[in-house]
Design a protein that fits this description.
The protein has one helix and ten strands. With 160 residues, the chain is mainly beta. It has a single domain, classed as Beta Barrel (Lipocalin). The longest helix has 19 residues. The protein is globular.
Length: 160
């Protein structure tokens, strides 16, 4: 009968654990999105799109946005990004509609991409930190068989 050394087995399991976690992919951390914190704006002739994100804390970032034309708010949105089961989840509630969740499919030190293939439009939401410190927010997906992409280049501005 073969005898097993419990201490040796324990050490083998403990040493192998980090490799197993690495092979499965480390859980996403909201801290990797710290670059998104702050206030952002895209302003043009007679319109302004503003987006603001609180810094990561407690496994969540809370955000909001609004689009203003002249002196009138056309759209607004309550946002959050939260850690759930090793992934980041982007939750949007635009202009009083019901909330919709998008699951992270890509995460680097400068990019995050979320998807919800069952949503009407968009099916993807992404943020990318650019070399100049500004960000490019983007939504895309299919509408009636046609693919549509909308870019939101945003520059960092002081928070009001």
């Amino acid at each position: 009968m073969k005898r097993y050394n419990a201490t040796g087995l324990f050490v083998t399991v403990i040493l192998a654990l980090p490799f197993r976690i690495f092979a499965q992919g480390a859980p996403a951390s909201i801290e990797r999105l710290a670059w998104l914190s702050g206030c952002w704006e895209r302003a043009g002739a007679g319109f302004s799109i503003q987006e603001q994100w609180m810094s990561p804390k407690g496994g969540m970032m809370v955000g909001m946005s609004r689009t203003v034309t002249g002196s009138r708010t056309l759209e607004y949105e309550y946002l959050r990004i939260e850690e759930q089961e090793g992934k980041l989840i982007y939750v949007a509630m635009p202009s009083g509609q019901t909330e919709t969740s998008f699951t992270q499919i890509e995460l680097t030190d400068s990019t995050v991409v979320f998807t919800n293939p069952d949503h009407d439009f968009p099916q993807h939401v992404s943020y990318r930190c650019l070399a100049d410190g500004n960000i490019l927010a983007q939504i895309d997906g299919d509408i009636g068989g046609d693919h549509k992409t909308v870019d939101f280049p945003l520059r960092r501005v002081p928070c009001e």
